[in-house]
Amino acid sequence: MKILIPPSEGKSKENTNNITFRNSNFTYLKEIKKVLEKLSNCDTDLINKIYGTSVEKSDIQHKENLDLLNKGCSIAIERYSGVVYSNFDFHTLNKSSQIFSNDHILITSGLLGLVKLNDLIPNYKLKMNALKLTSFWNPIFTKSLSKEDFILDLLPEVHRKSYTSSKSVKIDFKFLKGNRSVSAGHNGKAIKGKFLRFVIKNKLKDLEEMLKFTQDGFYWDGNAFVKKV
Q1: Which of 8, 79, 134, 158 is the most buried (most CB within 10 A)?
Q2: pLDDT tens-digit profile of 195-206?
C-alpha cells in the first residue's frame, strides 16, 4: 500500500543536514537533472509564468532551483510545513506510527519525483502543472507504483495526472451546500491532514476502516468525505 499526498507550497528554509543534494543518493537524481535542463531553457516570460510572482522574485526562485544539486538538505517531513503537514503532526506520533508513515507515504513533487518522508531534500519551488511535468513523471510514477496492491490517493486533480493505476482510491473532501457539493479546496487541507493522521496513527491498510473517519463534521457519503455548511 502507498498513500499519495502533495507537497506543500510552504517549506522550511532551514537545512538540518550538511550533505548536498547531489550527494544524497536520492532516487530520481537522473530525472531531476532533466527537469532542471527544461528549466534552464526557459525564457523570461515563461519563467515569470512558472513562478507566478514578480520578475525579481521569479528570477531569484529560478536561480535557486537551478542550483538545486548544490543545496543543503533536510528530511522531507521537516522541509514541508503547509497545512496538511501541520495537521498530520508527524513528530507527535509514536515511533511505530512514524515508521509506518515512512514505509507507506509518498509525496508527489513536480521537481523531485516521489518523495518519502525521511528522504533528504533541498528547499525548492516548482508546481506540478509547470512544463508539462505531469506527462514527464507519469510513466515513471506509474512504473514505480505498479506493484502496489492498493493506492490511497489524497492528491489534488493536477497531481493525479502524474500517475496511472487501476488500484487507486481517490479521497476527496467536499462541502455540502443545499443539494450540491463543492470542493473544500484550501479549507479541506486541514481535514486532509487529520485524515492522514487517523490512517497512520491506527496503521490502517483496510479501506473500509479508513472510511469510518469522522472529524470536524466530515463523514463518508459513499463518494467523498463531506460536511454540511
Answers
A1: 79
A2: 999 999 999 999
Instruction: Centre a 10 Å sphere on the Cβ of residue 109 and count the other Cβ atoms it contains.
Output: 26
227: three-class secondary structure by DSSP = strand
Is the pLDDT at 121 greater than 90, yes or no?
yes
* pLDDT band per the 50, 70, 90 thresholds, residue 169: very high
Find the distance separating the first CA and the last CA of the chain, reported in whole Å.
33
Entry pTM: 0.96
**How far apart are the C-alpha atoms of 42 and 40, rounded to whole Å?**
6
- 3-state SS, residue 151: strand
C-alpha cell at 177: 451546500
Beta strands in the chain (DSSP E): 2-5, 17-20, 72-75, 105-109, 113-116, 120-121, 151-153, 168-170, 173-177, 180-183, 219-220, 225-228
Q: Which residue matches cell numbers 508527524?
A: 90
Q: What pLDDT was estimated at residue 148?
A: 97
